[in-house]
Structure formats: structure tokens, C-alpha cells
Amino acid sequence: MSTLTKPNHIGRKISRIRELRDMKQEALAQALGTSQQAVSNIENSETLDDDKLLAVANALGVTVEAIKNFSDEAMISYFNTFNDSPNNNFGNHHCAFNPLDKVVELYERLLQAEKEKVEYLEKAQKGK
């Protein structure tokens, strides 16, 4: 039975989300602290333990529920809603979130990453 006929094949869902986020297996492997072959094995698995699923979800920037509930049909339906407007242009689409909040969120994540990098470098320098 192919993975396309199994709606709950968790590995396939992870693979599709990774592809939609334009992420290579190597990048996901690095985020998980593992090898590309391990990511390939994850994507070929029908099931995944909760801890590993949570780690993958965090690395992909989605929730565990988003992975479990993902379907290609839902994505197609979502993108088809853009064609439902009578004018068929994207100018009438309104964001469901405040873009400035997203910029602040990204800035805070960047700032935290920089703090962690400085701490790591300070520890490394003390060790010499």
C-alpha cells in the first residue's frame, strides 16, 4: 500500500510540510540535531513517538496538531479560496494577523539567538 493512500501517514505529512516551508531534509536534520538519513527515516515512518513529533513540529515552526491534521486537500481548498472573489485579485485579501506583530516576534527570536550566541562564545573563550 503506498503512502499516498494512507491518510494518517505521519512521515508523509512531515515531508509535505517541510516541502511547503521550502526546507531541505538537511536543514531539518540540522534543526533536529540529527542526520539527513534520520530525517529520511522519519518521513518514511507511518507513526512517530510524541517526543520526536514535538521536536519535528518545533523545527518546522508548526504545532503537533498541524502535522496530525495536515492534508493536501485542505491546502488546495485554502489556496482555491483566493479564486473565489469576483474580482479575482489578491488586493481584496485581508490579513488575519497584524504584520507588525510578526516583525516584532521575528525580531525577538533573532535577539534571543544573538544572546545565546554571545553566551556560547563567552563560555568558549573562558574555556581556553
From TrEMBL:
PROSITE patterns: HTH_CROC1 (PS50943)
SUPFAM superfamilies in alphabetical order: lambda repressor-like DNA-binding domains (SSF47413)
Source organism superkingdom: Bacteria
Pfam families, sorted: HTH_3
Origin species: Flavobacterium lipolyticum
Residue intervals of the HTH cro/C1-type domain: 14-67
The name this protein goes by in its record: Helix-turn-helix domain-containing protein
